[in-house]
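Q: What residues go here?
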């Protein structure tokens, strides 16, 4: 099951760097921390002596580690065994299960998004749903990993999920048949008017080359010149930092793509264009990047880079706002366990940190084709909503985060009216209509009125 499984409080994938083991067996402890370690050891002793039942050392030490990491931020965690295996699976983009990105929200398992084409999506699960029971067993208040393990299983077997959906009065059950989730990280199509659409579902291995292949295929399938390109990063929780850089580099011929800044030596890195691909593969072709509240981490790197360099118009909804980098720090000689630790923040070419605030679209376009839009928007979860999240150094004002929630008088059609017009995805429809009205030499939006209004 795709959960970005290593995030215990938030299951949005981040860029994970693999760092070498320290050359010394144990870091020197700051002398000032001595009294605090004494408290920790005294607590351990009291539990061992007086707790009502015998407690294994492993349980106490693991609890102490989890507590330390949990006090830092939602994305730092201790990983071992199956968790490490899931990380490798996640990076490969091939796994079995239901096809969900989830998080733990105050003890409840909340769906960030079902992946396109997955068993979960086909069964009708939606972003914002809460999973309360698995095969009739209550999972509220438990560990995310335990819920994940129960939802994983042999392809072809079924599991019954009890769902609470905000806006509905009663929970309901959904039966989902597990499958081998072989997500297509990149898909493409050519729409009317020779408009290319490239959808990136996740940033797993070789996504940059996959997008290059999709562009070459679009050029062959188009009946003449390609008049515009939509890069759809909606509900893309992220993945490899290198692949985010590669994808951005496809459309940039110079300048900074992203920078990451950390406290430790080696954690401050700069990534520039022309490092992976030469030139702009779609020179002169207007480009629109679609994002929403489920676009996180690597997706925000791409959107921010193309927006700052004015190579693309960013359209849709404000992104998730995850601007931190996690590194995998092996523990022990056998590397059977590791810390997934937040070690740096990343910044767009203009020096903007997306932490908390996310990427603000140039044109805010609501998903009017969603009949539950109004109800769902009240429960949209972003990085700034996660308990213990890193605070943006610039101290974002609440007004700045709320400004994109103001109703736009241009977008008044209902989901029913759009369905009658044959529009099932209003955001994508609006992006393609915009490109059809845009001259090949212009990337900026000239006419902000939708032809369907």
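A:
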């Amino acid at each position: 099951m795709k959960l970005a499984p290593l995030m215990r409080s938030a299951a949005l994938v981040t860029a994970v760097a693999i760092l070498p083991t320290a050359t010394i067996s144990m870091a020197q402890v700051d002398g000032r921390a001595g009294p605090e370690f004494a408290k920790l050891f005294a607590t351990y002793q009291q539990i061992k002596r007086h707790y009502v039942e015998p407690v294994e050392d492993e349980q106490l030490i693991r609890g102490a580690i989890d507590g330390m990491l949990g006090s830092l931020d939602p994305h730092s965690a201790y990983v071992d065994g199956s968790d490490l295996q899931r990380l490798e699976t996640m990076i490969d983009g091939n796994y079995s299960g239901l096809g969900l990105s989830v998080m733990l929200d105050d003890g409840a398992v909340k769906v960030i998004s079902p992946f396109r084409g997955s068993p979960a999506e086909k069964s009708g699960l939606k972003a914002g749903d809460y999973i309360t029971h698995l095969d009739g067993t209550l999972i509220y208040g438990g560990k995310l990993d335990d819920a994940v393990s129960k939802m994983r299983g042999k392809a072809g077997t079924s599991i019954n999920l009890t769902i609470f959906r905000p806006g509905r009065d009663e929970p309901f059950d959904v039966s989902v048949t597990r499958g081998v989730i072989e997500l297509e990280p990149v898909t493409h199509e050519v729409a009317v008017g020779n408009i290319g659409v490239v959808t990136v579902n996740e940033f797993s291995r070789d996504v940059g080359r996959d997008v290059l292949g999709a562009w070459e295929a679009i050029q062959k399938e188009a009946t003449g010149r390609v008049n515009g390109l939509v890069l759809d990063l909606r509900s893309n929780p992220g993945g490899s930092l290198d692949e985010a850089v590669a994808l951005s580099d496809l459309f940039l011929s110079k300048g900074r793509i992203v920078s990451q800044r950390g406290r430790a030596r080696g954690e401050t890195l700069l990534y520039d264009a022309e490092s992976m691909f030469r030139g702009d593969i779609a020179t002169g072709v207007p480009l629109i990047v679609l994002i929403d509240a489920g676009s996180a981490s690597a997706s925000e790197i791409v959107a921010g880079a193309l927006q700052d360099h004015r190579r693309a118009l960013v359209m849709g909804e404000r992104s998730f706002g995850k601007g931190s980098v996690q590194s995998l720090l092996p523990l022990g000689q056998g590397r059977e366990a590791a810390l997934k630790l937040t070690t740096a923040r990343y910044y767009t070419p203009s020096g903007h940190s997306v932490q908390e605030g996310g990427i603000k679209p140039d044109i805010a376009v609501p998903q009017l084709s969603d009949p539950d839009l109004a109800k769902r928007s009240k429960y949209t979860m972003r990085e700034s909503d996660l308990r213990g999240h890193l605070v943006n150094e610039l101290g974002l004002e609440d007004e700045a985060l709320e400004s994109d929630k103001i109703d736009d008088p241009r977008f008044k059609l209902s989901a029913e009216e759009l369905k009658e017009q044959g529009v099932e995805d209003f955001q994508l429809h609006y992006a393609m209509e915009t490109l059809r009205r845009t001259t090949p030499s212009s990337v900026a939006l000239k006419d902000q009125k939708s032809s369907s209004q």
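A: Context that may help when evaluating the design: The chain has two domains: 94-182, 186-436. Residues 1-27, 441-453 have pLDDT under 50 and may be disordered.
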